Amino acid sequence: MFTVDIKIFHQAGSEYDAYLTPPGSDIKYLVSYSEVKGEAIINGHKVIVTGAEMGFGGLRYFFICPECRDRKQKLVMTNSGLSCKKCLGIVPSSLNRSKNDCNYYWDLAEKVARTLDPTFSIYPAIGHIRFPDKPKGMHWETYSKKYMKYKEYKKKGDQAWMGAVGSLR
Length: 169
Ligand SMILES: [Zn+2]
Prior knowledge:
The chain is α+β, with helices and mostly antiparallel strands.
């Protein structure tokens, strides 16, 4: 059992076949990664990779957990294949998220936007994140309050994300 991290995958290039080693271990696993196809094959197990544009330029990448279809930065490889920690029961629920966790704030931002558009996703598969338009009949004041709240959470999430990436170096 070992963990695979999307950040390491993407640092290695956008299209390659390679043996990767998780930091601090002597495990080697075979990866066939393609950003264009949006997939990685890890020791023969295929997993979808998705990119989302960030407000300050650049792209953020996620695996799609083969079991729950959630976007994850890390997946765990077991004898039966890849799944996220939540699906494996390692983390009981998202309540364990700390306030330093970017996903904690991105989820809050998404919740705010979903009060306007239930289909809104903060991790769109393609293109920019677009905040929903004002629904007919809603006061501009109410709408702009939601937008400000969304922006605040989004910014905190992005900052937490930048902190997490920075600590890898
Ligand atoms: Zn999962």
